[in-house]
């Protein structure tokens, strides 16, 4: 059962982050929940809406070592993982770790790299370790990847296949700020300076404790029934070409646990499931029909189609 | 179906419990050694479940089985027949449980248990045996459930088993009421099935009736539809004993017919007799019957007989007349038999009788009076424990011991009458009976067995004389218990009033059971069906009625099961739905708001719903948040030890109080 002392720094963290990225509290919470659930986050949006700022902000507030990798189409896996270089002095190959050996990675424009490079990153995300030249090297802990991608219809992109998308616990969109928030942004100080002025609200150990507390959040049978009903609906309804996998159902539960913890509850409510559903489910679903719908619309339709058991 | 799963301790325990429940009612009728042996084997098995008690291997088990079979064969002198068969099965069940390891063994034991339950019905069909069998069915079914679902909890399996029995009992009732009945048993029982039934016999020696009087068993029950005659006229006529060899009285061969050998006269009594099985032909009736039952006969000495031995409880309606004069034109042959005495026995009695005859000159009534006076004035006493008598039993009783039971008085009286030249015979049967104040039936027990005399005269025919009444008038006026001196051992004498009261109630219940359940014969079934409006039934109609009703019952069960599945059985969910229904009528305050009112949307969680209500109805916002909190904790919170029932009560109370 998480105690309130878990929530006090979290509340402060969310407030501080809300002061930098304006009008995006929901996305900040989702990103945090994703982190607490030990998942990875994919942000899909146009350039310039604050993706990088969000990643930097989280790294700063959580006190994590931060690395940014800018993905390009000529990038090779070694550029991410690292490379062994022959050292003449010791007459041995010495491994020079790549940027992935960091606690928080911002993989910018991940869909601009070739599939080969993409999969190097995604495999590291999945395994929590990197194997090169017969040596297995563990990645640091916590290990959190925020990947960004441009909307896939833009030119010069290699869209991530479904199997790779599934590796991301959540996929969110930031969207344009509303009028008031944008006005405040324009009138305020430089975001970079603001971030530099912030002090970490959590230590890595505290984050670890939070991640452990999230696993212990109670899930009642009624909630499991609900998740099963949701998943079953996506599998049987003609609205979807294919439904949610068992891994998706697990992801939904894990995210809802973290969301409940952020809300200061020791148990998951249906509302927690519904809150994380737009971030967890749509990128794992393929809808039938011609009309392209946003993630929010897909999630809302799914929620309203399935009554609470 | 049966997986080769091994049996756990729980399954073993339930199998043993089931076997004990099966064994318990059978111990009454089977040899005590067998009951003890099987109980020991069951206990041994039970002990081995906890302690490292060695369980016998195959060799020892085979030896035990063979030894048991030999012992059973030695006890019964055969291995065929009902009793040895049941005994063998019981032994088999105990030994099977001893070696049982797999689910298959368990199934075998369960099957034997079910079969043995059936086996106890030829021995007893009382209420107690029905209750014990039901218990055994529940226990055995529980064991079966646990063998097939090892993960089920024992109370759950017990509940399931009881539930199944309850559902089956409806079909049982239906079959009982409607299945075409055939007269008599479905199959013949082995010859040994009726051993051990008590009752009168066709011979009488001194001591045979006093032996019978120690038995508390019920001989028959009587319900009067007219006024019950006085206690001292209740003579239930049974075997008539004419032959005498100096010690033993025998019935002899008497022709029987289906017409009354006398003319009826006097006061009428109508009644119904429920006769317990006694494996003999006699049907008991008050002296003298006014009609012969359709499947009965009457002998020339007025015994009412059935055409086959009474082996099941028998019910028949009777009418008797109190003023019958029977046998005025008795055949000379029968009168000769009724004067016959073996030569050379009991000389003292003969001498006395001949002296009376010489003195009174063949005046029958005077001789009878003289004999009764002889009893009254001769210091005779009435006792259940008469001394043993030798070869000249009549002389010894009349002149020396002078202590005897009714058969002594009746036998000596008839002897003296014959010695004096008057035709006389012994009549045995029952006298009196006990009125049960609960259901007003008259219960006649073996302890009411009695013997009296009949003396023939030209004017009055066969006339009843009860010499016992001369010695112990209370015997015929009240009961045996009242007539016996204090301290005589007698089962019929209840020590306490409350015990008597309980016995009366139990008897009334048993009587109702006999009448309603065991006595449900083809005739009563016809009456019952006629009452339902099914006239002129044949078995085809009965079977189709059975099929229709059975089908209806099955569909009712199916409908119930479907309904049950659709209904919300969770009281918490019921309460939550009640809140939604209560608020459904309320439209939102804001004009142009949602038209559907404040009913919960199917996908709406408690938190969101409470917020929506609070926004629409701020006056109850506080109350709603408490209700939502309660519901949320109970439905989605961790299961804690806090009293859920109390929380549910509070939730219901709060929802009930809510006035939006």
List keywords for this structure.
heterodimer; A: alpha/beta; Rossmann fold; Helicase, Ruva Protein, domain 3; five-stranded parallel beta sheet; 16% strand; B: 660 residues; alpha+beta; C8orf32 fold; five-stranded antiparallel beta sheet; 23 helices; 18 strands
Sequence-ordered SSE layout with sheet pairings:
The complex is a heterodimer of chains A (309) and B (660).
Chain A: H1 4-20, H2 25-36, E1 41-44, H3 51-62, E2 66-70, H4 77-81, E3 82-87, E4 92-97, E5 104-108, H5 115-127, E6 129-132, E7 135-138, E8 144-149, H6 162-165, E9 170-172, H7 179-187, H8 191-196, H9 204-215, H10 221-236, E10 240-242, H11 246-262, H12 270-280, E11 286-287, H13 295-305
Parallel strand pairs in A: 1-8, 1-9, 2-5, 5-8
Antiparallel strand pairs in A: 3-4, 6-7, 10-11
Helix pairs in contact in A: 1-3, 2-11, 9-11, 10-11, 11-12, 12-13
Chain B: H1 9-26, H2 32-48, H3 58-76, H4 82-99, H5 103-119, H6 127-148, H7 154-178, E1 203-204, H8 208-212, E2 218-224, E3 235-241, E4 243-244, E5 249-250, E6 256-257, E7 268-275, E8 285-286, E9 296-299, E10 304-306, E11 314-321, H9 332-337, H10 347-360, H11 364-377, E12 381-382, H12 393-401, E13 403-404, H13 406-419, E14 424-431, E15 434-435, E16 442-445, E17 449-457, E18 461-465, H14 467-471, H15 473-477, H16 480-483, H17 497-518, H18 522-531, H19 539-566, H20 571-584, H21 606-616, H22 621-636, H23 644-657
Parallel strand pairs in B: 12-13
Antiparallel strand pairs in B: 1-5, 2-7, 2-16, 3-8, 3-14, 4-5, 6-9, 7-11, 9-10, 14-17, 15-16, 17-18
């Amino acid at each position: 059962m998480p105690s309130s002392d878990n929530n006090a720094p979290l509340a402060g963290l969310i407030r501080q982050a809300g002061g930098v990225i304006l009008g995006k509290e929901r996305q900040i919470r989702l990103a945090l929940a994703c982190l607490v659930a030990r998942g990875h986050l994919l942000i899909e949006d146009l350039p310039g809406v604050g993706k990088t700022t969000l990643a930097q902000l989280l790294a700063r507030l959580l006190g994590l070592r931060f690395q940014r990798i800018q993905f390009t189409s000529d990038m090779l896996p070694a550029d991410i993982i690292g490379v062994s270089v022959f050292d003449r002095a010791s007459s041995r190959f010495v491994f020079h770790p790549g940027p992935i050996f960091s606690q928080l990675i911002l993989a910018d424009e991940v869909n601009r790299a070739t599939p080969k490079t993409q999969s190097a990153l995604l495999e590291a995300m999945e395994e929590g370790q990197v194997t090169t030249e017969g040596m297995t090297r563990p990645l640091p802990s916590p290990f959190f990847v925020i990947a960004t991608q441009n909307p896939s219809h833009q030119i010069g992109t290699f869209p991530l296949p479904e199997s790779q998308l599934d590796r991301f616990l959540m996929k969110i969109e930031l969207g344009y700020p509303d009028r008031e928030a944008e006005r405040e942004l324009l009138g305020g100080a430089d975001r970079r300076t603001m971030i530099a002025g912030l002090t970490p609200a959590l230590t890595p150990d505290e984050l670890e404790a939070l991640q452990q507390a999230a696993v212990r959040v109670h899930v009642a049978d009624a909630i499991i029934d609900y998740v099963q009903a949701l998943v079953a609906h996506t599998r049987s309804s003609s609205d979807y070409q294919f439904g949610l996998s068992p891994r998706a159902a697990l992801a939904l539960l894990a995210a809802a646990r973290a969301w409940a913890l952020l809300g200061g509850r020791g148990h998951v409510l249906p509302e927690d499931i519904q809150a994380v559903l737009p971030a967890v489910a749509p990128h794992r679903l393929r809808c039938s029909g011609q009309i392209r719908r946003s993630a929010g619309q897909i999630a809302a339709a799914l929620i309203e189609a399935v009554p609470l058991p | 179906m049966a997986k080769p799963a091994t049996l756990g301790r729980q399954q073993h325990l339930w199998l043993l419990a089931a076997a004990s429940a099966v064994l318990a009612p059978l111990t009454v009728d089977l040899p005590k050694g067998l009951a003890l042996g099987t109980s020991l084997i069951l206990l041994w098995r039970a002990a081995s479940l906890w302690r490292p008690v060695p369980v016998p291997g195959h060799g020892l088990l085979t030896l035990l089985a063979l030894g048991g079979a030999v012992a059973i064969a030695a006890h019964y002198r055969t291995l065929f027949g009902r009793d040895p068969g049941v005994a063998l099965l019981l032994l088999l069940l105990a030994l099977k449980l001893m070696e049982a390891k797999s689910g298959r063994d368990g199934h075998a034991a369960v099957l034997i248990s079910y079969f043995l339950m059936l086996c106890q019905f030829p021995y007893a069909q009382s209420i107690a045996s029905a209750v014990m069998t039901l218990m055994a069915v529940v226990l055995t079914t529980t064991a079966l459930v646990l063998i097939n679902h090892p993960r089920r909890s024992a109370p759950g399996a017990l509940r399931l088993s009881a539930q199944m029995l309850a559902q089956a009992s409806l079909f049982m009732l239906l079959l009982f009421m409607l299945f075409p009945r055939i007269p008599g048993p479905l199959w013949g029982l082995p010859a040994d099935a009726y051993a051990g039934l008590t009752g009168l016999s066709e011979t009488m020696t001194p001591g045979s009736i006093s032996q019978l009087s120690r038995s508390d068993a019920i001989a028959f029950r009587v319900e009067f539809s007219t006024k019950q005659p006085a206690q001292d006229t209740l003579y239930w006529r049974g075997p008539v004993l004419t032959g005498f060899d100096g010690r033993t009285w025998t019935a002899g061969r008497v022709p029987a017919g289906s017409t009354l050998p006398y003319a009826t006269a006097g006061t009428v009594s109508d009644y119904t007799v429920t006769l317990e099985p006694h494996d003999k032909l006699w049907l008991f009736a008050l002296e003298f019957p006014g009609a012969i039952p359709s499947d009965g006969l009457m002998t020339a000495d007025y015994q009412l007989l059935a055409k086959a031995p009474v082996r099941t409880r028998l019910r028949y309606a009777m009418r008797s007349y109190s003023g019958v004069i029977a046998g005025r034109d008795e055949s000379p042959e029968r009168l000769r038999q009724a004067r016959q005495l073996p030569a050379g026995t009991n000389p003292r009695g003969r001498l006395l009788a001949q002296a009376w005859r010489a003195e009174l000159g063949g005046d029958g009534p005077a001789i009878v009076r003289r004999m009764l006076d002889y009893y009254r004035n001769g210091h005779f006493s009435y006792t259940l424990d008469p001394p043993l008598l030798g070869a000249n039993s009549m002389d010894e009783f009349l002149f020396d011991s002078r202590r005897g039971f009714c058969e002594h008085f009746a036998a000596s009286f008839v002897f003296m009458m014959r010695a004096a030249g008057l035709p006389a015979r012994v009549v045995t049967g029952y006298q009196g009976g006990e009125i049960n104040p609960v259901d007003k039936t008259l219960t006649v027990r073996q302890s009411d067995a009695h013997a009296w005399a009949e003396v023939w005269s030209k004017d009055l025919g066969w006339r009843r004389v009860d010499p016992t009444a001369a010695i112990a008038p209370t015997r015929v006026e009240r009961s045996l218990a009242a007539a016996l001196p204090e301290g005589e051992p007698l089962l019929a004498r209840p020590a306490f009033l409350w015990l008597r009261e309980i016995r009366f109630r139990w008897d009334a219940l048993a009587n109702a059971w006999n009448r309603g359940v065991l006595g449900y014969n083809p005739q009563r079934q016809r009456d019952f069906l006629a009452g339902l409006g099914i006239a002129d039934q044949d078995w085809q109609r009965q079977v189709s009625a059975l099929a229709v009703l059975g089908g209806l019952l099955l569909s009712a069960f199916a409908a119930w099961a479907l309904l049950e599945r659709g209904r919300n059985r969770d009281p918490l969910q019921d309460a939550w739905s009640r809140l939604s229904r209560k608020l459904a009528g309320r439209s939102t305050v804001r004009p142009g708001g949602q038209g559907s009112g404040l009913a919960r949307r199917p996908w709406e969680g408690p938190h969101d719903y409470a917020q929506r209500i609070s926004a629409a109805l701020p006056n109850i916002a506080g109350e709603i948040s408490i209700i939502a909190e309660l519901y949320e904790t109970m439905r989605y919170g961790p299961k804690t030890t806090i009293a859920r029932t109390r929380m549910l009560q509070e939730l219901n109370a709060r929802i009930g109080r809510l006035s939006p």
